[in-house]
Every structure is written in structure tokens, then in C-alpha cells.
Amino acid sequence: MLPENTPPTGLKQPFSRPRIVITASDYARLVAFAERPDRTPIAEYLSDELTRASIVDDDKLAADVVRMGSLVTYRDLASDRTRTIALVFPQEADMARNRVSVLTPIGAALIGLAVGIYLGWHPPERRRRNQNG
Questions:
Q1: 98 found inside a domain
Q2: Up-side HSE of residue 49: CA atoms within 13 Å toward CB?
């Protein structure tokens, strides 16, 4: 069964952003990274996501929601590539061990999503490049 926001094959129109839920402890740490004065476009995207997130007590987060430290398997629909990663804070990132920072495009996109959600998404740096020519 496909989630409600799954697009029909080949459809190009934009979809609404799915609901995201973040634990209070993850939120506190993530805000510190996202709001740094030297923030990147990905950190800006993460900051935007945090402003719309539902914040819950750490013990109230549903088991099927991506949080920091989660092991996540996702599929990139553009390449049809499936990958399993651990979502981690920047200082814990290690691509050789599939430990992906929340301050990467895929990390910022996955935090707070429930299992089975389709996310029609383009990395912030791609949008910015297209806007600048």
C-alpha cells in the first residue's frame, strides 16, 4: 500500500511537504547546528524544517519515525538506488560506514519522517544554483 502523498508514476507536480515529528532532545541539538551564523543552504533548509516540526517528548516518538541515530533505508526515485544509512550528528558522520550527517541533503530531508513517506525534494544547493543561473 502506498502512502497518501505518493505521486502517480511520471507525475511532475509538487506535493505538500509531509508531516515531521522530532524529539525534544534532538530538536534542541539540531537547532544549535541549524542556527549557526555560518550556516549552509542545507542548515537553512533544516532550520525551516524545524520550524514546522511537531516536537514530542523523547519517549513519545513513534517507532516508525526517523530520529537521530536511526538506521534508515531509502530509495532515490531518480536513480532507483536503495541505500541504508545511520542518521547522525555532523561530528559522528563517516560515509565509509554509512553514517550520514543530518547536515547533508539526504540527512536533513529524512529527519522526522515516518516510514513509507514519499518526499518530492530537491537539495537546497540545486535550487540555489538554478536561481542564480
A1: yes
A2: 30
Residue 44 lies in a domain: yes
pLDDT in tens, 18-36: 889 999 999 999 999 888 8
Helix axis angle, 41-52 to 24-34, nearest 10°: 150
Report angle CA 109, 115, 116 to the nearest 5 degrees: 95
Domain count, the chain: 1
H or E segment at 46? Answer: helix 41-52
C-alpha Rg value of the chain to the nearest Å? 15
Amino acid at 119: L
> By C-alpha distance, which of 47, 43, 61, 76 is closest to 114?
61
pLDDT tens figures, 39-81: 889 999 999 999 999 999 999 999 999 999 999 998 887 788 8
